[in-house]
Amino acid sequence: MREGYVLSVTQLNEYVSTLIRNDMLLGSVSIRGEISGFKRHSSGHIYFSMKDESSVVRCVMFRQNAMSLDRSIGDGMQVTASGYASLYTRDGQFQFYVKSIEREGEGELYRRFAMLKTRLEAQGLFAKEHKKPIPMLPKCLGVVTSATGAAIQDIINITRRRYPAMDILLSPASVQGAGAAKEIADAIRLLDGYGKADVIIVGRGGGSIEELWAFNEEIVAKAIYACKTPIVSAVGHETDFTIADFAADLRAPTPSAAAELCVPEYEALNDELEYMRDEMALACRRAIAEHERSIDSIEKGGVFSSCAHALSLAGAGLSALQGALDSAVASGVSGAEHSLSLTVAKLESIAPERTLERGFAIIKNKSGFIGSVEAVAAGDDVSIVFFDGEAEASIKTAAKGGGKE
Prior knowledge:
Order of helices and strands: HHEEEHEEHEHEHEHEHEHHHHEEEE
Number of strands: 14
């Protein structure tokens, strides 16, 4: 059995919304709390939550009011927001519609963030000289993030699109909640120790300052600082900043942007190589053409002509010298041949045979030719050699100085 009125969901929401709008207190009120989940929409509207120790209320600030808002306003800040409360009838969501915000101070998380940042900066963890360059063409991409989050899918999709052959190593870790900071630090050390990754992306998708807080822990900052492999932080959205961003070698506004920074485009690399190859070929052709023009200019110039003339004269002189040398050699050879002929004739004229032909004879014994009378004695047998034969004889007497025959 039904009791009371029967209303549609829309009618119920509109009725409650009217009650809230007609409440004098809720129609113009200010609330104090800490901003969380601060986001600027492309429409210009701002969405965030305000919280205290016990409760949270969703807030929206429309574009016309947001235009004058201090750009430094953001997560973790303690503020007083003025506006009105109402019910968003479509979703049945109770919201606070903010017209203006006054900054009262820093919230607890923001205060802790600022204190840790100051201390680690003093220790040199953010020093520029410690930053390592990101490799232009890594062979393997390391990733530290949740295995089930959108961040890893974005990184994989962009990497496969830009460079399909790139290896990806995931070292999974929780990215929010208790123990997440230690998991992230351990995952960084594991990848670094493995030694296969050329660059490491550490991060997650967007969230409130509480959801991103693991990346504001000292243990993560020191793991990043001690890592030998270059690290790119990619935590949250473009407007989110964490301690990890300052400790990393490079900050990317989102995980997708980190993949684009770390992974080159294969097609672009090919195009660049082709362009460089064409430029080198063109430069070589230009250099060759320039040298050809220089050589042609030298050939047509007076200096080269003078050289050619001098070489021609030198060649003619060399030819003349060659002719003179040939003539001198021929003359010398002819003279030598004539002298040799004379010498041969003289030798032939004094040869023993010629002497014997002129009536002379040679006497010899068993020991050889006899050239002195002292070599013979009476009774010795000798041979007498004529030009046309020999005769045997016997020595009857032998006397020196013209004795008897």
